[in-house]
Design a protein that fits this description.
Length: 433
C-alpha cells in the first residue's frame, strides 16, 4: 500500500498484506528469536544481503517489519527502523550521523534525557555536541556549524513549552552545509506534522508517547527521507568498505553500496542495532501497531482537550502564565499556523501562582490527572518537570529551556474535558483552602 492512500487508511492497513501471513486479520506476533535458514545456499544469500528475509530478531522480525513499513508509508519515507526506546532512536541517530570525529549541532530546547546525554555520556564515546542556545535565531544555527559538524538536531515541538522551530529555514541551513537535519517529532506525531514535508532528512520518535498513545510500551523509531546525498564528502563512514558487507566474491562493500536507497537506517541496522542491540520486541511492535490505528482520532481529541483546558487555565487566578501556541500572546502562534494547522499538540504548561507547599498540595489533589513522568497517554497526566522529568538539567540548561520551579506540565488525554477542568478546579481549591 503506497501513498496512493490517505494517511488514515495507511495508519490502519499500511505495510501489511494478510495473504503473506496466513490471512490473519490482525498483524501476527512472530515471537521467535531466530528463523530457519533453509539450505546453506539460501543462508549464503541471506548473509551476503542478496536476500532480505529475517534471520534473527535482533536485526529484523516480520511483526517489527510491518510497523517499519507502515510508518514509512505514513511519512512518505524511504525506510524506517524500529528500536527498543526513543532514547535508542535519538542516540543511535546522532552516532550514525557523526561517525568518527563528527560533531552534532543541537537546539537547547530538548527532552531532558537527550540534553543530559550530550554532556554526561556522548563525550565518553568521542561525540561532541554544540548547543544552539536560542533556536528562534536561525543565524545561530549558521554560526554553530563547524568543519566537522555532521547533523543539526531539533525537536519539532519542544517539551514542556511547545515551542516551534522554523524547520524549513533550519533545513535550508543544513542543506547549504551539506549536513543532515534530524528532527525529533515525538510530541507532534505524524498526524500533526510530517517533518519530511519541510526538508528534514531524518525523523526520530519516542513511540512510547503519542504515536502509541496508551502508555503501555517503550519504543523508538528512526525514518529517513531517502533524498540525502551521502556522497557529498561529509559522510566518509558511509563509503568506507567493510569486510562484513562483502559480496559473494569476497569484495568488500560500503553501506552506500549495500543500502543505496536507505543508507541511514541500513547503517543503523547493520552496526548500531546489530552491535549495540536495542531491538524492539515483536510484542511491543504489535502494541505500537495497535496504537497507530487510532492515532488521528486520539490526537485530534487530545488537541481539543488541550484547547479547552488552556481556556480554563487562562482565566484562573492561581495561574501566572500558560505556555502553548494556543495560549494568549504566544510568540509561536504564527509558526503553529504554518506547521501545525491541525493543532500544536496536547502538552500544556502553566505557572502555579502559590507557595511550594501549595503546589505540592495541588499535585497531590488531582484525581483524574495522573501524576507521572510520561506524555501522550490516553490518560491525562500532570507533573512538576523541574523536580522530575527535567531534574538532570543544570541551572544554565534550565534557564535556556525557560524552566522555572513554578512550572506544571499537563499532557491531555482522552477523558471528558468537563471532568478534566473540574479536577483541576477542585485541586486548586484544596491547595488554597
Ligand atoms: C520521551 C522522549 C524521548 C525518549 O524516549 P523513550 O521512549 O522514553 O526512550 C526522546 N525524545 C522526546 C521528545 C521524548 O519526549
Amino acid at each position: 500500500m503506497s501513498r496512493l492512500y490517505e494517511f488514515d487508511t495507511l495508519k490502519v492497513q499500511g505495510g501489511y498484506n494478510s495473504a503473506e501471513h496466513n490471512h490473519a486479520v490482525s498483524v501476527p506476533i512472530y515471537q521467535t528469536a531466530a528463523f530457519t535458514l533453509g539450505d546453506s545456499y539460501r543462508a549464503d544469500r541471506l548473509f551476503s544481503f542478496s536476500e532480505s528475509d529475517p534471520i534473527y530478531t535482533r536485526l529484523s522480525n516480520p511483526t517489527v517489519d510491518v510497523l517499519e513499513k507502515r510508518l514509512s508509508q505514513l511519512h512518505g519515507a524511504a525506510a524506517a527502523i524500529a528500536l527498543a526506546s526513543g532514547m535508542a532512536a535519538v542516540s543511535y541517530s546522532l552516532l550514525n550521523a557523526a561517525g568518527k570525529g563528527g560533531r552534532i549541532l543541537s537546539s537547547a530546547r530538548l527532552y531532558g534525557g537527550s540534553l543530559d546525554a550530550y554532556s554526561s555520556l556522548f563525550p565518553d564515546i568521542g561525540l561532541e555536541v554544540d548547543i544552539v542556545e536560542n533556536p528562534d535565531d536561525i543565524s545561530e544555527f549558521e554560526r554553530g556549524i563547524k568543519e566537522n559538524t555532521r547533523a543539526i538536531f531539533i525537536e519539532s515541538l519542544s517539551n514542556p513549552f511547545a515551542t516551534i522551530p522554523d524547520i524549513e529555514k533550519i533545513a535550508a541551513v543544513a542543506q547549504r552545509a551539506g549536513i543532515l537535519l534530524i528532527v525529533d517529532n515525538t510530541l507532534a506525531t505524524p498526524y500533526l506534522l510530517n517533518p519530511f514535508d519541510y526538508g528534514a532528512d531524518i525523523v526520530v520518535y519516542s513511540a512510547t508517547k503519542g504515536l502509541t498513545g496508551h502508555g503501555n510500551v517503550i519504543a523508538g523509531v528512526v525514518l529517513e527521507s531517502g533524498k540525502f546525498d551521502y556522497g557529498n564528502g561529509n559522510y566518509e563512514h558511509f563509503l568506507q568498505p567493510l569486510w562484513f558487507l562483502r559480496d559473494a566474491d569476497d569484495r568488500e562493500r560500503s553501506i552506500l553500496d549495500v543500502f543505496p536507497n536507505e543508507p541511514f537506517t541500513g547503517r543503523l541496522r547493520a552496526l548500531h542495532l546489530n552491535y549495540l542491540g536495542a531491538a524492539l520486541s515483536p510484542f511491543d511492535a504489535y502494541l505500537v501497531l495497535l496504537g497507530l490505528e487510532t492515532l488521528s482520532e486520539r490526537v485530534a481529541k487530545q488537541v481539543a482537550n488541550a484547547k479547552a483546558v488552556i481556556e480554563y487555565l487562562e482565566q484562573n487566578e492561581h495561574v501566572s502564565w500558560v505556555r502553548h501556541p494556543y495560549a494568549k500572546d504566544n510568540p509561536y502562534k504564527a509558526l503553529a499556523d504554518k506547521y501545525f494547522p491541525k493543532g500544536a499538540g496536547a502538552v500544556v504548561s502553566f505557572g502555579f501562582k502559590g507557595t511550594e507547599e501549595q503546589k505540592r498540595k495541588f499535585l497531590a489533589a488531582t484525581k483524574v490527572f495522573s501524576y507521572q513522568a510520561n506524555i501522550g497517554d490516553a490518560r491525562s497526566l500532570i507533573i512538576n518537570p523541574t523536580e522530575t522529568t527535567h531534574v538532570e538539567l543544570t541551572h544554565k540548561q534550565r534557564e535556556l529551556t525557560g524552566l522555572s520551579t513554578d512550572t506544571i506540565r499537563l499532557s491531555l488525554g482522552l477523558e471528558s474535558p468537563k471532568d478534566l477542568i473540574a479536577d483541576l478546579q477542585q485541586a486548586f481549591e484544596v491547595a488554597f483552602s
